[in-house]
Each structure stands twice: as C-alpha cells, then as structure tokens.
Amino acid sequence: MRNKLLDYHALAEKIKQWGRELGFQQVGITDLDLSEHEATLQKWLDNHYHGDMHFMERHGMLRARPAELQPGSVRAICVRMDYLPKGAKFAQVLRQPQLGYVSRYALGRDYHKMMRKRLKALGDRIREEVSTADFRPFVDSAPLLEKPLAVKAGLGWTGKHSLVLDSQDGSWFFLGELLINLPLPVDQPQPEQCGSCTACMTICPTQAIVEPYVIDARRCISYLTIEHAGEIPLEFRQAMGNRIYGCDDCQLICPWNRYATPTPEADFLPRHELHEPDLLYLWSWSEDEFLRLTEGSPIRRIGYEKWQRNLAVAMGNAPASTELISALAQQRPNTTPLVQVHIDWALDQLEQRLAATETSAKPARLTQRLIRVIEKGLPRDA
User: What pTM was estimated for this model as a whole?
Assistant: First the structure.
C-alpha cells in the first residue's frame, strides 16, 4: 500500500499499543523542531555548565536538530520505561553513613541495550506494516535533546530539576526515541505543574540547580561521581555524604514522585551487592571483583579508579573508626595518585573526628604508622 493511502492516525494508535506490549509505560509522538531550545543550550555551554563533558561542546547545536542525525526523519516516537525498584530503601541507606548509596536507576541491569533492542523491535514492527518506514533508535546514545523531545511528545513537563515529570508517575523513568520518516500525528504536551515549588532546588546537597531548569553539572553529585574524571573538588566532598554513584535527592523530595509506580521489569530490580552495601565491603573489592560484580551494570562504565575515588570520599564522611582508617591506609600504596589524594583527605577527616571524640592524638599517630608500615611492607607488629 502506498503511504499516501495510509491512515496515519490509526497507525499511531497501533504504534502506541505495540510499544506498551514491548514494555514501555508510555509512548508519544512529536515533530523534530527543537529550534526554541538552541539559545538555551548555547547559553548553558557558554557558562561551561557541562564541565569536562567535552562531547557536549563538540556536538554543539546538533543536539537541537534531530533531523540531521537521521536524514529523512520527520517524527520522533518517544517512549518511557519506569525503573523505580520495589523496596528501594532510599532513606534507610542515606541515613546510614557506613553504607554506600547508589542511585536507584543503577541498582539493576544497564538500561541502554535493553531499551534500544525494544525500540528496534518497535521499528521492525512498524516496517512490517509500512515497508517504506525508515527509522533509527536512540537511548542516550547520540547528541540529542531527548528531554525536550519527550516533553513535546506529551510524556511530561520539565521540572525545575531539569528532569521530565509526569503527573501520574513522577520522574523515575528512562527515555528513548525512535526517529522515523513517517508523518504521524503528534501528541500534545502536558501542562507545567511545578508551580511555585522549589523543593528540588533547596534540597540539592551542592546547590547544583543554579536557577529553575538549569543545572551546573560541575556542582552535581551525579556528574562528579560518574562523568568527572579528575579530583572531586574539596568544597563538595562532605556534601557528597555516602553517595558513591549518582544522587537522587532532587527526585526524592519531589511531591510528584509520591505517585510513582514500581517497575515491573525484573532487570531493574536491585542487585544484592549494591542494594544496602557496607562501605568496607565495597572497598575490599579487587579490580577483578569490581568488573565481575558490576557486569551488566551502568556502574561498570566508570571504571575501578573512579569507583575507589568515590568510595574513599564516602568513607571519609562515615563514622570514624580504626577499621576504616586501617582499610584506607592498607589500600593506599596499591592505588593510583588520583585515589591517593582522596584517601588522604578521608584519613584526615577520620583522624579529626576520632581525635575529637577521644581527645587524643593517638589515632593520628596510628594512621601515620599504619601507612609507613604498609608502604615499607613490614609485618604489622613491627
């Protein structure tokens, strides 16, 4: 059948149904005009809010021009997949500083490949219906302003924390897109419903939301623990608390997330090692153990060095104990200079707190002796 004879409205409804059958909680359709976002994107880049994510600068305005990513495309089929795990235990972990907090999206399997595979399956199903359909799936895999596309497609509105919010399910979901060459009818955006609420801006531990809808990534704990490759600035280390991979505070405080529905996806359920992990246990992992225990997890992508860097900061913020001091001191000679900087900071924090509680300089002397003994390879009782 020739495309001009197609009932695109009926096809759009079929596409949404096929998407739900593939496990997407919501499917919306929009055109590709994001020109209104170009000035905002350029200002964000000019302010260097992207930090050392240089790929943001390299691709420039391409992010706001989806048609250039897939020539011939005229629509984006935007999908949402919920990831909030049952029994997420947010507060319990954050209130126990001897545990490591992992952002809830990273507790299970990495979503990128799974969602992309399902988006491709959706595209293939469309092509079965319309042989001339040409498409390309995206899941955080190309320079694309996916959140503005999702908003145009009716999946939600932009919250002041810059995440997409839905009135029924909050913000605990992943986004994906299928750029396609079919002139499907478009959906209408949801009305903005944040009102005067600024809870996300107030709660941010590092005040990274510098104004409504604008994030300075250089201050964001998610950026610092995942994207940032160098030393974590001193001014943010205490604010990180026990957050070792990402941060959920702006979502946790959001009133709309009271309505979030736990995900039905088994792949997003928490791994035992990461759900309520003890910092000393995570610190004991060798690089081989890190690679094995994070296989299939988004955490694996940051690498062992950044993992240890993040853990060292969290341990420096934990209740002071000789066990923590000993573990950090023992590992110090076997790590990289980057990790050693953060170990030294953590040891200093722990020493100060122990000294304050015991009113004695003994903990500091003990730490220095441990480091000297370990670096010389002498027996512990030497």
Answer: 0.90
